[in-house]
Design brief:
The protein is an alpha+beta fold. It has helices at residues 53-65, 164-180, 221-240, 286-294, 300-311, 315-321, 325-336, 342-359, 371-382, 388-402, 406-412, 421-434, 436-444, 447-464, 471-484, and strands at 3-14, 69-70, 73-74, 77-80, 90-93, 100-108, 114-126, 130-133, 141-144, 151-157, 193-203, 213-218, 248-253, 258-264, 274-275, 282-283. It has 3 domains: 3-291, no CATH class; 300-412, no CATH class; 421-484, Arc Repressor Mutant, subunit A, CATH 1.10.10. The chain is built from 15 helices and 16 strands. It binds zinc ion.
Length: 485
């Protein structure tokens, strides 16, 4: 019997507000433990929460970008559970009436097919603190409440995801969109985006859902795929062995690549949800909603389509450029100021500039190279002043190091392409004298071997001139000089 998996993801995303969701403590990562705290986020008796308006704006912005319907009226609720890093013993969240519902995102699989994953709901809530267990011989556990009260949105998908790859792509897509619109920093290692995955299996083609398990708190794209691959295999083995999958919460052990039972699953009743009495209903009226809509930028998928239609890029190149909003803007500026094909600009940025920036531990956002300079550099190539190879290998790295204009670098380093015939012939003669085998191959070989020999000799002349020889001229001159010797 063949099985298929049914997967739904719950993704928690921290919002990039300056302060926490219900108090004015700083919302930042990495401060000394328990320094960004106050009576509200410490859960002191008598303290009252006040909702951060910016957090609602960011949450709504995210929901709009994920094609959700925004509810004018929604409610906060208390979700009760005990944990050392949750001093109130309840979390303020949204339950029956979330602020956003019925959205979707589209993922593109490695085989090029697209799939729409529906989003059931998005709700706002506060993050808990962090429990840190002592390492090595340290038997203590520590509680850091800096994170308590960090604004979160929880994005709950429909069980539309069928493979671990789709789950990874979906999570990546969410990250790309949230970072693009500026509401999340996309830093998975710091926990800015975390994922719980619900997964069950059923006989292929069946409509019934099997018993699901939940994998908690995975904070890496690679791990979400790995954890699901393991868990699906495990469930299939249980069923094939005549057993039953138990509904439970499991943890992924990334070191061993396996999931382990954490606790048997609690039901919603166990949380004793009820409406939060300390907060009024959340009203998002049309006027406010419209003003938030105005702050929403053109989204990555729209920009990608535009790059393909306006700049004739391949969908693949366009998708690389829209992985980062600054990168997309950089490309667009460079391509708009360049008179040649935009494809050349995309190539230079993707295959050379990004690598050179990476070498210097820089990103496109901190790039000393300006978009117009990329266009100037390509114009130098088009005019035959320098070869493309010199542009890639010599000029770009120097531009990244010094931020100088391409013309200045070409002048200073003496990189001007050699287009003087006599000078080139001189170099060719020297190269021929050092490569008798290739000369012999040319003299005695058939057409194919001749071409091969010329190609090889072009490479040698390029080496000799450090890439400065004009390749077009070499193509003409090498056979000529070969006839002379
Ligand atoms: Zn506080």
């Amino acid at each position: 019997m063949e099985f298929e998996a049914v997967i739904g993801l719950e993704v928690h995303a921290q919002l990039l507000t300056k302060t926490k969701i219900f108090c004015s403590c700083k919302n930042e990562f990495g401060a000394p433990p328990n320094t960004n705290v106050c009576p509200v986020c410490l859960g002191m008796p008598g303290s009252l929460p006040v909702l951060n308006k910016k957090a609602v704006e960011y949450a709504v912005k995210a929901a709009l970008a994920l094609n959700c319907k925004i509810n004018t009226y929604s409610l906060f609720a208390r979700k009760h559970y005990f944990y050392p890093d949750l001093p109130k013993a309840y979390q303020i969240t949204q339950y029956e009436l979330p602020f956003a519902e019925n959205g979707w995102v589209e993922i593109e699989k490695s085989d090029g097919t697209r799939k729409r994953i529906r989003i059931r709901r998005i709700h706002m809530e506060e993050d808990a603190g962090k429990t840190i267990h002592g390492e090595g011989l340290d038997p203590n556990s520590y509680v850091d409440l800096n994170r308590a009260g960090t604004p979160l949105i929880e994005i709950v998908s429909e069980p539309d995801i069928s493979t671990p790859e789709e789950a990874r792509l979906y999570m990546q897509k969410l990250r790309d969109i949230l970072v693009w619109i500026g509401v999340n920093d996309g830093n998975l290692e710091e926990g800015s985006l975390r994922c719980d995955a619900n997964v069950s299996i059923r006989p292929k083609g069946s409509k019934e859902l099997g018993t699901r398990t939940e994998i908690k708190n995975v904070n890496s794209f690679r791990f979400i795929q790995k954890a699901l691959e393991y868990e699906i295999k495990r469930q299939i083995e249980v069923v094939k062995g005549g057993g039953k999958v138990v509904q439970e919460t499991r943890l992924f052990d990334s070191g061993k690549g396996i999931t382990k039972t954490m606790r048997t699953k609690e039901e919603a009743e166990d949380y004793r949800y009820f409406p939060e009495p300390d907060l009024p209903p959340l009203i998002i009226d049309k006027e406010w909603l419209d003003s938030i809509k105005e702050t929403l930028p053109e989204l990555p998928d729209q920009v990608k389509e535009r790059f393909v239609s306006d700049f004739s890029l391949t969908p693949y190149d366009a998708s690389i450029l829209v992985r980062d909003r600054d990168l997309a803007e950089f490309f667009e500026k460079a391509a708009s100021s360049y008179e040649g094909e935009a494809k050349k600009v995309a190539n230079l940025i993707i295959s050379d500039l990004l690598g050179a920036l990476n070498e210097e531990k820089l990103t496109i956002s901190s790039s000393p190279v300006k978009p117009e300079q990329v266009s100037k550099l390509l114009t130098l190539v088009d005019k035959g002043v320098i070869s493309l190879r010199v542009a890639k290998e010599e000029v770009i790295p120097e531009m990244v190091k010094s931020g100088k204009e391409p013309e200045a670098i070409v002048k200073e380093k003496g990189l001007v392409q050699i287009s003087d015939e006599e000078a080139l012939k001189e170099v060719i003669r020297k190269v021929l004298s050092q490569n008798e085998k290739a000369v012999k191959q040319y003299k005695e070989g058939n057409e194919k071997q001749k071409q091969k020999a010329v190609k090889y000799l072009i490479g040698q002349v390029m080496k000799e001139t450090r890439g400065k020889a004009n390749p077009k001229l070499l193509n003409e001159l090498i056979p000529k000089v070969l006839e002379e010797v």
